[in-house]
Amino acid sequence: MTLPLDLKRMPGRIGAGLRRTGLSAAVLAAATMVAAPLSAETLVAVKHSALRVLDPILTTAYMSRNHGYMIFDTLFALDESMTPQPQMVDSWTVSDDGLTYRFTLREGLKFHDGSPVTGDDVAASIARWGERDGMGQVLMDFVESMGQDGDNVFVMNMKEPYGLVIDSLAKPSSNVPFIMPKRLAETPSTEPIPEQIGSGPFTWVEEEFQPGVKAVYAKFEDYVPRDEEPSWSAGGKVVKVDRVEWVVMPDDQTTLNAIMAGEIDYWESPPSDLLPVLEASGELEVRNLNVLGYQTIMRPNALHPPMDNPLIRKAAIASVYQKDVLDAMIGNPDLYSLCGAMFVCGTPLATDVGSETLTEGNGQDLARQLLEEAGYDGTPIVIMHPTDVGTLRTQPVVVAQAMRDVGFEVDLQAMDWQTLVGRRASQAPIADGGWNMFMTNWVGADVFNPLVNNMVNGKGPDGGWFGWPDVPELEELRMAYATSGSLEEQQEIAAKIQEVAYDEGVYAPIGQYFVPSAWTSNLEGVLDGPAPFFWNISKN
Amino acid sequence: MFGYIVQRILAAVPVMGFVALFVFLMLRLTPGDPAAIIAGDTATPEQLQRIREALGLNDPLHIQFITWIGNLFQGDFGTSVISGKPVIELIAARMEPTISLALTTIILSVLIAVPLGVIAAWKHGTLIDRFVMLISVLGFSVPVFVIGYLMISLFSMQLNWFPVQGFRPIGDGLGQFLHRIALPTFTLTLLYIALIARITRTSMLEILGDDYIRTARAKGLPERLVLMRHALRNCSVPIITVIGIGFALIISGVVVTESVFNLPGLGRLTVDAVLARDYPVIQAVILLASLIYVVINLLIDIAYVLLDPRIRYS
Fold it and tell me: Is the confidence metric ipTM above 0.90 for this complex?
């Protein structure tokens, strides 16, 4: 290797070299200064996470749900008043005995491969969804048979009248009853569908998909939107851009710089500490799009001592003050609310029954009293503490301290989230890798009624959600809710469920919080909703 | 020499086999469950079990290992359990950003650092020497992400010369490619300049005190020839070693740089796979990294012979 240096004359040569290098850099910079302008019809969005699993029925991951909303459509959808509205359905009838539902699909609906949407496609899709989803499983318990009557009529025959058929089909969050072609819907529900063919407003651009990097959608030119104004996931899904790109940016500071430099258009979940910077820029819109927000929860494990004792679980819940959790976790009071409603504040089923200590912070004496009554012997409570997720790393610390303050011994075990996810499935005793408590967050729409809210499931170790409280009364109440006929009755039952759930200490909401999104001011028509939607957005 | 190369390649086989076994076992001993990631938060334990079964994660470990190794021998690295995409396809998609960054960084670093090191040694004890050492200390001391953010702040946000983030393949045009890779390259280059310049300087200082250098100067050889032909060439072995290992380090993943500049490289693929417990991807990436180290070490050894005739392998 030889170097082009004359070392005796180095200073001069260096100077010249540096000048040349500087000049070259300048020339290069000038030549390349103009970055490829983003197409006016391409909307670039940074999502809260990477899209990895493409089957929104196989998984409940929110990214997969969001992906589902892009390429699939639904029979019904919730509007902003949380009322189900027809989406793919044009009209429907219910027989006088309440046992037969006939849904006529809208004219012109077709899948991305050009085939028309039929009643058989709908039946197969609902059947697959009903295998996976909690609310779908309840619906399927009432369904006698499903099928088509003519190409565009879907018929559902019930074993007995069920009041939540339409609500079930309008379920807004994971798992959403998306409609896919029969050949895909016949895939076993434990395996991913092999293709991304839906009848939604966007088509999937498979060749540009890079898991963990980018997902690309193109406008489906043959999509027939409804005439109504869009409202949440209901109404006309009019696509006003040619492409939508979801990109993954692992670093928040980079995302902040990118949106301020105009390299991206939309940032779904900026961290709360960066919101003031975004708001101060003057060129960005920052707004909470999801009025239900998120519910952060603490979930005891009812299988193992000492938390197999409801009094101990109640004591743990009574020790916690939501404000302490939310101040540490979110900080900005504008972005959280104290809310003891298990079915989320802001919904028709919201009630504060049984939640006073959480929202008033006056439960410490009660907690000590309950511990004494339960004969707590100082056995350490193992709390799993995920340290790698920003929205989950704070709560365990605050809750652990609150519990210690009233006399609990707490073993706060640090781990990454995926370790927690694996370990929480274990029903083994504590000594064999079991656990006593963990915290997680839910999108409001995933917990907003007793059928979708997994934590009030009282089936115990066989069929219950992680933590497995065995409370038959909860199951009876949930079934009563499923067959209830009016909103008043539903509210009454939901309040009773909440009362029993608090009394049994099955879980506790430890706060409701909101995550605003940010977008550049040249975007118009960004919709509110329980999930981020990309129709109706135009880019000027 | 040829025999030596063959011998080294053959010796790499058990090394790779050991790495494969070690990685496989370590992953299976690590807590976490890809089925839980696929199923999501609301999955019941029964659903998790069914997915584990479908993925083959309930098979005995030795069956899983034999299946994996058997597929490897047929050139099949498996399929990502999370995305369902072939692992080889995932890795191939991430190779270009990483190799591009490695090449641009190493080339720029060598072009700057070697002359700097030579000058520093030649002007030992002067302000120039101290200036080069100051740059080296800074390059080592300031974290890469700080340099990255400063670069973005100055060149992207203030001067608007370069984009904040992203990568464009060279197939999209050389201008676009260089425009995007420039800032991450400059950022990493500072670190590698520090490393290579220090090694060059130290090696040169040792050599410049040797008798044969004094003899060369006494013969009246131009200083350029003394430094280039006699000194630099004789101290090239450690420099080449550092360059080679530096290249391997970048290839095997510079997660922070890739994250700060949103480069979709192998480092991010590895981290994502680890966080998602995507066993086939992690196994393949680590095997690939091991292979890269083996190959680069072999190339370094070969380079020794070419640069220093005194070195012979039997």
Answer: no
